[in-house]
# Entry
Amino acid sequence: MTVVTLGAHILDVLARPVEGIPAGQDTVVVEEIRATAAGAAAGTAVALARLGNEVVSVGAIGDDDLGDLLVAIMNRNRVDVTGLVRRTADQTSASVLPIRGDGGRPSFHVPGANLTLTPAAVERGLLVAADAVHLGGPDVTFGLNDPAFFAMLTAARAGGTIVTMDLLSNLPDLLKGAAAFLPHVDHVLPNLEQATAITGETDPEKAALALRAEGPASVVVTMGGDGSLLATARGVRHLPALPVDVVDTTGCGDAYCAGFVTALVRSHDVDEAARWGTAAAATVAQGLGSDAGLTDLDAVLALLD
# Structure
């Protein structure tokens, strides 16, 4: 099964547990520091690969050491990175995340080269040939908000490619711009804050239904420990989160998307896909970083037994 992840590529550096920034030049010893491939495209790409999919990732990164490290991490996880373009004038997007003891994740972030991605970087035939295309963060890769790119998605969907979409930011202006993509995707998976910012609806069910009215066949609104809502033509259903000990919530949304897409390309319906997404997110929540604990599909699905 070939999946193309297209959009935001970020290098995350995470440390835990962190309860505050030390004064002056003081040092605090922490339990763990990791660097991971993250962002709604790169993080999802790694998770998809670990779940047994062939993955090609498309995006823009800097021609810098951060980009080299990001590529090395993705290569090590067997993600095809030939779709990445290197920018000499922009740094690779990166985040520093001090993870609190309760799993919360404030961040320091540089948008970097993600803002430069345009349809010119996307090979049209690649999308048509894929079983699925996952748009990861079109709110921050807003150069793809272009009729030429929407025509690529139309051609791919006409050929049977499944198109899914997740978002990255919580900035209302960027999220409202991403609404232009909704008529061109089959499934969209925002978190609750994103869904309410786009629609203006504060009720989660109303927000999910409002998004679905814009074109997608299904909408999944993820709500952290409160589980997720799945909206389809049959109405709205609630899926509870799985009970796990949360270490870090970074990448849980990316993992959910990876589980969801993995089920779809194996011909499961959206209800089962949401269950697989729930299990993948629960797996990642138990460790540090967007790929934590993901070994293979069988281990993830064992959480559903």
Observations:
- Residues 49 and 144 are 24 Å apart (CA to CA).
- The first strand starts at residue 2 and ends at 7.
- The first helix runs from residue 42 to 50.
- The mean pLDDT is 95.
